[in-house]
């Protein structure tokens, strides 16, 4: 353009910078910026707004802020670009401060803040902001709604999820592909796979995300065969699976004991669909072999992997060794983990638990000494339950809830009723060297049991109890929940770190394979 003797104006400059922003072409954007400054081109607020957006989208937030500070009359684009830029890199305090200073945040700005909170795992604050957005009458869009539904999914906040669903219907976004996909994911993660399927069936248009959401949802609920059927239907619909689709498939096979099917799908990734397995796929495959008891094959699988096994791989192997009581292989695996010099405490805790289950308390002490030396702490177990759209959190071993006395009474009543019909506490899951009666008391106050007890005293008879735990549910609690659901005549849905467990009539949907 300049070679032809045509000089750019401010609109030309802003357009070129916007193109650089959309392509995340930072170097080109800097060249354009420098060229204009070197040529003595006077930057106006429109051009500076474009620069703010470009630097923020490219992750250079400090450069964006410098330009932002020079704008005399800031518009919605520059404000939103700065706020979204801070939120995108996790600097939510800075984003919130600017958000509060912005004269009239629009839909895009509100959504940027909500997305920022969700991306950082701060789902509770994301929901609060969404409800504030509704209160102030800000117009909703499908991005805001899908982000709020994502927050509900993270919290397993079903009642809140239904409220957001109602808002989507009222705002006319029920047929939106983005909202539909988010609804499928939300209902799945809140424990109602039937509602997820109902939303899926009503969707006019479905993409690979829609099908993958159903595949992953069914997998997490232990519906292995149904998961595979959805995959076949997806292929018939003419859609090509992606890497996340295969994570769901392998996960389903692992938790349903479908070893041959899992091997087939893992091999088909690269042979039929040209998808190179990632460490996540290798972990799922290893988990499949380990759960099924093929420990030697699992160990050989690790040794033949084309990528270097990380702590997740060795952690999955260690978990399989613990489940099947192979202490020698567990020790070999643990040595590999220690060599990685990792900072994650979970695998050390798993090794300690493996030794504790075998009664090797001296080895437990050695592992814990190693953890202390590396300043690693065990992640505390906690469970939460939503009652009347409010989330109540409980930690293992202590009850600080306002209704703690009523919870204590319910726990004691449940313990007596369970023992009367044959329940025997499995104290092998108490990972401390203490007297037996103390072990029984300790295990009776695991967080999931406390959350269930609170749910029973806080909801009407017949209401399904829905509990979420941040860690894997222990074997004793799994057994206890089967007894409790039958005694009280209620369904109990528990989501732990691995999957969903649906307890009903004294049975669990996982069929004790988890």
Q: How are the elements arranged and paired?
A:
Layout lengths: L9 H14 L2 H13 L6 H13 L3 H9 L6 H13 L3 H10 L5 H13 L3 H13 L6 H14 L2 H13 L6 H13 L3 H10 L5 H13 L3 H13 L6 H14 L2 H15 L5 H13 L3 H9 L7 H13 L3 H13 L6 H12 L3 H13 L8 E6 L2 E6 L8 H17 L15 H8 L3 H12 L6 E5 L5 H14 L3 E4 L4 E5 L2 E2 L6
Parallel strand pairs: 3-4
Antiparallel strand pairs: 1-2, 1-3, 4-5, 5-6
Helix pairs in contact: 1-2, 1-3, 3-4, 3-5, 4-5, 5-6, 5-7, 6-7, 7-8, 7-9, 8-9, 9-10, 9-11, 10-11, 11-12, 11-13, 12-13, 13-14, 13-15, 14-15, 15-16, 15-17, 16-17, 17-18, 17-19, 18-19, 19-20, 19-21, 20-21, 21-22, 23-25
Main beta sheet: 6 strands, mixed
Low-confidence stretches: 433-437
Structural class: mainly alpha
Number of strands: 6
Helix coverage percent: 55-70%
Q: How much of the polypeptide forms β-strand, as a percent range?
A: 5-15%
* Rg, Cα atoms, Å: 27 Å
Strand order of the largest sheet: 2-1-3-4-5-6
**Number of discrete helical segments:** 26
Quaternary class: single chain
Global mean pLDDT: 86
- Principal-axis shape equals globular
End-to-end distance: 65 Å
